[in-house]
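thread: overnight batch results

M.L. [08:02]
morning all. the overnight job finished for the chain we discussed friday. pasting input first so we're all looking at the same thing
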Amino acid sequence: MGEQYKNAVITGAARGIGLAIARKLAGQGLNVIISDVLIDEAQKVAGELSGLGIKAIAVKADVSRREEAENLVKATIENLGSIDYLINNAGITRDNLLVRMSEEEWDLVLDINLKGTFLCSHFASREMMKNRFGRIVNIASVSGILGTAGQANYAASKAGVIALTKSLARELGKRNITVNAIAPGFILTEMTEKLPDKVKEEYIATIPLARAGTPADIADAVGFLISPAASYITGTVLNVSGGLLI
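M.L. [08:03]
and the structure it wrote out:
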């Protein structure tokens, strides 16, 4: 990383993929804002990462709420001085078949997964434009490309994230801000661990690499996309799915 660009915000960073990303970036010497609604867990992560000799600060934020997304960026500037990297990872599922899905289940998933990505990018990009530097990575999903039965809300939200990524890349490129997305496949997290073993086995059987991914696989991809090695990459969707989309 460039020495002058040291500050990263990771949303949904208390657990799972977000936690792995926070650990990866802190290990690369970046200061990290650990954002999550689970503030107690976020504070534990911040304490862990502070031991690496970087600044790690927990900030409670529901990214679907405009004022909380704005306060997240303000807290970053106040504590670290700038926001150089934004990883929009916060997301949820509320799975159901379309005919059974409630409007509340639809709205909640779209609000957090898509609106939250918009709001955080909206406020962060203003600061990045002033500095003429920024790297935004949005965590999408192969579901946003393929669609998934029983996940119409989730798939629609992630397809929206992909389209948002491409649009922002066109808008922000002239200010030296890249915007990319990662589309994870079947990743072992607290969320997927709850699935029955038979379901997991059937899913893995469709993956050419014949294994589930790990949060570290996604974190490694994030580390690449925010690095100088990826400075000429923007508007791209990087599939980290073990070949699921071949």
